[in-house]
From TrEMBL:
<protein>
    <submittedName>
        <fullName>Peptidoglycan DD-metalloendopeptidase family protein</fullName>
    </submittedName>
</protein>
<feature type="signal peptide">
    <location>
        <begin position="1"/>
        <end position="18"/>
    </location>
</feature>
<dbReference type="Pfam" id="PF01551">
    <property type="entry name" value="Peptidase_M23"/>
</dbReference>
<dbReference type="InterPro" id="IPR050570">
    <property type="entry name" value="Cell_wall_metabolism_enzyme"/>
</dbReference>
<feature type="domain" description="M23ase beta-sheet core">
    <location>
        <begin position="166"/>
        <end position="260"/>
    </location>
</feature>
<dbReference type="InterPro" id="IPR040487">
    <property type="entry name" value="Peptidase_M23_N"/>
</dbReference>
<dbReference type="InterPro" id="IPR016047">
    <property type="entry name" value="M23ase_b-sheet_dom"/>
</dbReference>
<keyword id="KW-0732">Signal</keyword>
<dbReference type="Pfam" id="PF18421">
    <property type="entry name" value="Peptidase_M23_N"/>
</dbReference>
<dbReference type="InterPro" id="IPR011055">
    <property type="entry name" value="Dup_hybrid_motif"/>
</dbReference>
<dbReference type="GO" id="GO:0004222">
    <property type="term" value="F:metalloendopeptidase activity"/>
</dbReference>
<feature type="domain" description="Peptidase family M23 N-terminal">
    <location>
        <begin position="23"/>
        <end position="93"/>
    </location>
</feature>
Amino acid sequence: MKKWLLFGLVLYSGQLLAFPRANPVPGGIAIIPVADATTTVTAPVVQYEGKRVTVAQQDGAWLALVGIPLDAQAGEHHLQAAGSLIPFEVQPKQYRTQRIRINDNNKVEPDDESSQRIVQELAVQKGIKSRYSPQAATLDFIRPAPGADTGRFGMRRIFNGQQRNPHSGMDIAAATGTPVKATAAGRVLHTGDFFFSGNVVYVDHGSGVISMYAHLSQITVKPGDNLQQGDIVGAVGSTGRATGPHLHWSVYLNGEAVDPALFL
């Protein structure tokens, strides 16, 4: 164990090619060495809080890429691998607060009909975000659209004076109709119209890495489509709960939203 912990410190100090940056905070990513790839041919099965974790190979090691929940407490956490517990530390982080005014108050305090729809959609989205496919993860990401960052990941959001969930992605302001590109190669998991997210595309990049593109004005792909990096998946819009045209871009690891900026 000490050997791997020392190796992990060396990894953290250098830049990882085609890997996200490690930032072990709530909403961030911990990169943990879990096995020697020179002696272990296949990727080991690793879990965090009962969820399968992305494992990728680099520099002779199998590395676990752990998505840390936004509500995680700072302190010692553990991975499960080959019947053993591997400890890692989550560092504290304070996110800023953003106050937003929404003209349609039903998007802030939904009526009964909308609330029933939201419950059903949340169950669907949870399953999509938690999907783990066996193919190796594609981790070489590009920015999916041009434009200014207007809503940073993790911000505590207050809509019309009501506190709601933290921001689970990156908002990129762009004109309606601006093409939205697949951030990496993958397969379209799901497309749909959701109450809060509007028109959405989910893409599976392998081994539990999922990207999501929301508030689209149009969708140009369908479930099952195979994508190359840069393929168009839709166009920027303002569908769902939005104050204007922009792309909401999210990335999920082991079902948890993590800061997309760590992949750029």
